[in-house]
């Protein structure tokens, strides 16, 4: 076993928050950019990470400190944030439950072997 590589399968989840809308993920081929980190996690922890995406995020409380272009889109982003953020939180929570269940299953397997 190489140093830094887990001798056990360890589930991981990556949560990506981005200021871009969902269609930009395909248009700009985000998967190609993220594939290196995913491969690293998989080779280190011996399991492909689950990925969760949160798009078109509203990342600032006071958008008026930023550019005019950003100010133009801030009200629209705030509306979307208020509607979508609870769903994004639920997705992250559900992924945590799924990962914990997988860890418990693997621990049971390792203890029995």
Question: Quick summary of this structure?
Answer:
This protein is mainly alpha-helical and 113 residues long.
Give a short account of the largest sheet. Answer: 2 strands, parallel
Strand order, main sheet: write it out: 1-2
Rg on CA atoms, Å: 18 Å
Shape: elongated
CA distance, first residue to last residue = 19 Å
The tally of domains stands at 1
Q: What share of residues is helical? A: 55-70%
| Structural class by helix and strand composition | mainly alpha
Mean pLDDT: 85
Query: How many E strands?
Result: 2
Series of secondary-structure elements, N-terminal to C-terminal? EHHEH
Task: State the low-pLDDT regions, or none.
Answer: none
Could you tell me the strand content as a percent range?
5-15%
Please work out how many helical segments DSSP would assign.
Answer: 3
């Amino acid at each position: 076993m190489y140093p830094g590589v887990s001798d056990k399968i360890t589930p991981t989840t990556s949560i990506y928050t981005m200021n871009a809308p969902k269609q930009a993920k395909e248009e700009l081929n985000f998967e190609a950019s993220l594939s290196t980190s995913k491969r690293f996690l998989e080779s280190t922890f011996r399991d492909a990470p689950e990925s969760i995406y949160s798009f078109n995020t509203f990342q600032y409380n006071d958008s008026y400190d930023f550019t005019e272009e950003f100010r133009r889109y801030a009200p629209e982003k705030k509306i979307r944030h208020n509607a979508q953020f609870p769903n994004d939180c639920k997705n992250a929570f559900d992924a945590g439950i799924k990962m914990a269940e997988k860890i418990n299953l693997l621990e049971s397997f390792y203890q029995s072997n």
